[in-house]
Design goal:
The chain is an alpha/beta fold. The chain folds into 2 domains: 340 residues, Alkaline Phosphatase, subunit A; 43 residues, no CATH class. Helix content is 21%, strand content 16%. The protein contains 11 helices and 22 strands. A 10-stranded mixed beta sheet has the order 7-6-5-4-12-1-13-14-2-15, sandwiched between helices. It has a 4-stranded antiparallel beta sheet with strand order 17-18-19-22, covered by helices on one side. Strands 3-16 form a two-stranded parallel ribbon. The radius of gyration is 22 Å and the shape is globular.
């Protein structure tokens, strides 16, 4: 017999209904008039851990702007991304599809083709169809054009316009991957015709220096990998040549993309808009602006957290100055959990001190353990609902699509967002009856499922440990079961003690995997 509260022994159909109580479904009504339609801003940090912000209990770093949003909104302590790595997490958020359902959604190189294919309903296309102006600014990491065949010197297609974004100003992949240029509306920003761009993820271009062969040219050295083309004195993943005046300066990335986000807000203040703002902070290489350099006392990683907090504050202040904060939903979250050494010798490990980016949880970025997918998640509603509330409801980023569509009066296409469920009452803090279960994946594709306070990690042949980043990946050949109510740090595998729970969760996970979708609307 189980000693803990038993799980809901229901299949997908039953759990689908349980995801939102009847009273909550009745409250989750679409807006009645044009004036009722709120603006929506999703600020998606990169590699920000649950313990990296002061409102989640950190005493080693202050994030006053994020704390302000939490005080004016609802802070969730049991919120999860769909994956512990970037590309699949972003895919899940924007499409409402579990990324493990779709081949090719793993960590994307800088020359990856468009991963969200044209014709796939997205949160952006759904809101655009409902009359919203839509924009994407900052880190993208979901591919552009056709794989390895992009025209970096012309119009890159397919791109973000084809999946619902009216405006885009993006980094194609990540700060540590080439091409190191911004792309505005599918053309390289500030393009330099005297320095045409070539990109390869197979071989270097003749005569181009690399971090491996020319370490004397580096101002920031790699700790592992990251030894290919050199841009701005930093070696990257992948090879490129050219770029000239279009090449970004790492110290200015936060200022540039936050500025573009502000411009989008200001331009569209008079009409409903949706802004997806993916920051570069706190991903490597961490080269914060001189305003933040050295301020945290924790090296470049801590300084990058301060930079991210500044970006959040800049967005909040422009909403205040334009008088539209009270008709804007503002969401602050992260794509996955934290990593300290992710490839550069920036002294993040040596200067970490007592700071715990993973809070009380085990693992981190790449991992199946909780720190990989339990992320900061704060929602400030346009009407100020439940300001200052802290919710322990089980929620997932996969449900942002359906929830925001419902709040904004948008109709999701019949085949759209098959795994996203409207959770408006939950995300408004009106009930703590969140999801009955959440599925997530690690960097190896190992799946986990959480339900009723239990967490089951499916058996995997993947490596247990990633030495380069000092991360426990959560892979094991045998089933793992953790009682998160008693063992939030996942130190005691109790699968042998609770075979009935293991079988229930294994069966549920199998049912989810083989279903075409799990949404119930």
């Amino acid at each position: 017999m189980m000693k803990r509260t038993p799980l809901l022994s229901l299949g997908i159909a039953g759990l689908g209904a349980a995801a939102l109580p009847t009273s909550a479904r009745a409250q989750a009504q679409a807006p009645r008039t044009e004036q009722d339609r709120p603006n929506v801003i999703v600020i998606l940090a990169d590699d920000l851990g649950f313990g990296d912000i002061s409102c989640n209990g950190s005493r080693t770093i202050a994030t006053p702007n994020i704390d302000r949003i939490a005080a004016e909104g609802i802070r969730f302590t049991n919120a999860h991304t769909t994956s512990s790595t970037s590309t699949p997490a972003r895919f899940g958020l924007l499409t409402g599809i579990y990324p493990w359902r779709v081949p090719g959604t793993g960590i994307a190189p800088g020359d990856a083709g468009m991963i969200i294919r044209p014709g796939t309903p997205t949160l952006a296309s759904t809101l655009r169809d409902a009359g919203y102006t839509t924009g994407a600014v900052g880190k993208w990491h979901l591919g552009l054009g056709e794989s390895g065949r992009q025209d970096w010197n012309g119009h890159i297609t397919p791109g973000l316009e084809e999946i619902g974004f009216d405006y885009s100003f993006i980094m194609a992949a990540t700060g540590d991957r080439v091409p190191c240029v911004y792309i505005e509306n599918q053309r390289v920003y500030n393009y330099d015709p005297e320095a045409p761009i070539s990109v390869s993820y197979k071989e270097n271009f003749p005569g181009e220096p690399t971090g491996r062969d020319n370490p004397e040219l580096l101002r920031l050295h790699p700790s592992h990998g990251h030894d290919m083309s050199i841009v701005n004195g930093i070696s990257r993943i992948g090879y490129m040549k050219g770029g000239g005046k279009a090449l970004w300066k790492d110290e200015e990335i936060a200022d540039v993309i936050t500025g573009k986000a502000v411009e989008f807000i200001e331009k569209n203040r008079e009409r409903p808009f949706f802004l997806y703002f993916g920051t570069n902070d706190i991903h490597v290489p961490r080269v914060p602006h001189k305003r933040f350099a050295g301020r945290s006392g924790m090296g470049a990683r801590g300084d990058a957290i301060l930079s991210f907090d500044w970006s959040v504050g800049r967005i909040a202040r422009v909403l205040d100055s334009l008088g539209i904060a009270d008709r804007t939903i503002l969401i602050v979250t992260s794509d996955n959990g934290p990593v300290v050494d992710d490839g550069y010798r920036d002294r993040a490990v040596e200067l970490l001190g007592d700071h715990r980016p993973w809070h009380i949880y085990r693992g981190g970025k790449y991992s199946a353990f909780e720190a990989g997918t339990r992320v900061p998640f704060i929602v400030r509603w346009d009407d100020g609902a439940r300001a200052g509330t802290v919710s322990g409801a089980l929620v997932s980023q996969i449900d942002l699509f359906a929830t925001l569509a419902r709040r904004c009066g948008a109709r999701i296409p019949e085949a759209g967002a098959p795994d996203s469920r409207p959770a408006l009452a939950v995300l408004r803090g009106e009930t703590e009856q969140g999801r009955s279960w959440v599925v997530e994946q690690n960097a190896n594709g190992t799946l986990s499922i959480l339900s009723g306070g239990w967490k089951y990690i499916a058996p995997s042949r993947g490596a247990a440990y990633l030495k380069a980043t000092n991360t426990e990946l959560g892979n094991a050949p045998e089933p793992q079961l953790y009682d998160l109510r008693e063992d939030a740090g996942e130190r005691h595998n109790v699968a042998a003690e609770h075979p009935d729970v293991v079988e229930l969760l294994r069966s549920l996970l199998d049912e989810v995997k083989h279903a075409g979708g799990t949404a119930r609307r």
